[in-house]
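Q: Hi! First time doing this. I have a protein sequence and I read that you can turn it into a structure. Is that right? Here it is:
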Amino acid sequence: MRSNKPILLVEDDRIDVMTIKRALKEINVMNRLEVAGNGE
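A: Yes, that's right. Below is the predicted 3D structure, encoded as structure tokens:
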């Protein structure tokens, strides 16, 4: 079952954000990724 719900990523290191984006793309996750730089 596929979902179109957004994914929230809370990460302050932009290299880690790029790594996660690349990993999601490789496994064909098409959900929108919302990135927050901190927990506030």
